[in-house]
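Hey, weird one. I pasted the Threonylcarbamoyl-AMP synthase sequence into the form twice and got a warning about non-standard characters only the second time. First submission, copied straight from the form history:
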Amino acid sequence: MAVEVKQCGGSAVLPLSFRRSLNPFPCHVSFQNTQPPPQLARRFFTLAVVKRSPKRLKYSAPRFTKDDGLLYVEVDPFGSDAWKLDPIVELLKEGAVGVIPTDTVYAIACDLRSHSAIDRLRRIKNIDPSKPLSILCRSFKDIDTYTTGFPRGNGQGLTNIFRAVKNCLPGPYTFILTASKELPKLCTKYGTTTSKYASRKNVGIRIPDDAVCQAILEKIDAPLISTSVKSPKENEWILDPVVIADVYGPEGLDFVVDAGIRVADPSTVVDMTGNSPQIVRQGKGPKQPWMIAEDEDS
């Protein structure tokens, strides 16, 4: 079964059965027409609709109440067609929760300024109250705003950690820092009532070295709250965006940005809140000379 998609006076056939599980090679959609005129380019983007689900949350914004489907946008991983991201950015500004690529694995993300979106993200991912969220930042300016910053030294000969960190970012690292008062409470405290809130003073920050992720951050002009995408039943990364749409779409996900299948290589997590930078999880980012691995800690 196929559906005909109109584009600038032409048409193309988009297979509804686009699941990569039936085909080991990614599917591609090709149009007979040439590149649309610049004035129309922003109006057309690849999308697919996931089946309606009674679990899907309802929203007050008209855009959300009109359609219970999931927006699926396929983009060039090198960011050459960033205009396709405009509808995604508009959804994020309206409180949407969706999946975006990073330089490691895919992440479920939402606008840091939307408290309701952060709450929805936790429900969609079913995040345990003890699990922290991370901030996807545009630059070190965001890090300075939502944390107390990097320590100036560790008292053991390393007097300029900030300079060392600048050589790692953008890159596949998550640095745990002390949160500032500017960070929304939902990012630092968990629970549904005041009595259940558990104070959390630290937060993970990232500046991903990914063209698509950076384009989204620049377009929305704000950092995003995120959590990596794992299977809800198995402790494994979900690397195929099509599978992510199948798994989390029925739970209330609003969109998926497809920039290709990723590799199961998460970010390296470094705790910067102690006396020395401690590696909590070794991932894609190489261990730097000034970092201390767990097995080196005496």
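That's the output from the first submission. The warning seems to come from a hidden character in my clipboard, not from the data itself. The longest helix spans residues 115-125.
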